Amino acid sequence: MSSVDYTKLMQILSRPRPSGSAGERKTIGDLQGWLTERRLPFRIQAFTLYPYFLICVGLWMLCAHTLLAVSVWLRWGWVSSLIAVLGILGGLLDTAFDIPIVTWPGKTTGQNILIEFEAPNPRRELVISAHYDSKTELFDHRIRYFFVRNLPVGIALAIMLGILSPLVNYLPVPWIAPTYILSVALTIPLLFLVWGLGLNLSLGRLRRNPSQGAVDNGAACAILLGLAQHIADGNIPLEGTRLTLALFGGEEVNMQGSRAYTLGRKWTLPSAALNLEIMAQDGEYVFWEQDGMSLKLFRTDLRLNLAISEAVEKVTGNPARPAGPINSDGYSFMRARVPVATLGTYDCELRESGLHLPSDNLSRVKMTKLVEGVEILAQFIRSYRSDL
Ligand SMILES: [Zn+2]
Fold this sequence. Notes:
Aminopeptidase, binds zinc ion, alpha/beta, elongated
């Protein structure tokens, strides 16, 4: 069994590489170089990438809703309704329906790296994935989650203001002042929510000390590349399983690369997917019970969760623990109706926090857990081959 040079891999995968950046281009080039050197066959899937997705959504959210608040204060009536509608649609259509209303600036081409192993007469298909781009948000996980969780509240407030503002002009006199005061009061929580989330999304790339992307999600990519080498060396028989190891781009900007992959192809065999996030930390393994995007969450596949938890137990002695929710590339598989589980690890001290900061660096990755990660995936492939 030829050994995998994880130190070299983690050097490639421990530097800032936001979508569309020079760091990202260098990482893609270095990963291709690594694969070519080892004669591991791969192909590149090009896709349309909107690299400034978060900045655009953040700025739109901030500007449109601040203008909405001002229009309410100044009693612009129906103009407020129009601003509320535009404020909600811009960003919402981009995020939930993939229509680039406000996120089109800077449109470019992204790349997914696909390492495909075709079995003779395949009877089933498995995709194991991770993303190689790194995070750019301003706030840490937990603060960000507060604002994301309250997004529906923000939308409800904007709708109420869009209704109340013109209403003030048509009400009987005694009702005008209380309705106006109520609408002005409602602008305060709205401004708090949109400024919080808007600054988080739009200022992250200006951080002087960004995430190195070692834990999120360099380690998972290193595990997939190590696995690729072992499979190519014939150490893990696939026996009727068509296997794709996918390194996706654009995950941190609304899962663009994985979506291009899952929705841009046909799924002709019984298929399943395992997505990896924040692997190789020193704490326990977790599988997330829910995955999705900022506005909607779905349950991950129970059977796959059980299978990956068992694979973890066979290798480490302890099963993976349920956790959640998460927003990850797992959602793109859900959208293509491919059953998916998302596996990761926690840091003993920081848990799942500190990932948007310089504290996501190489020292947080346990190199022995990269080897262990490959063993877990090999075990999972074995059980998928026989049980699923
Ligand atoms: Zn991630």
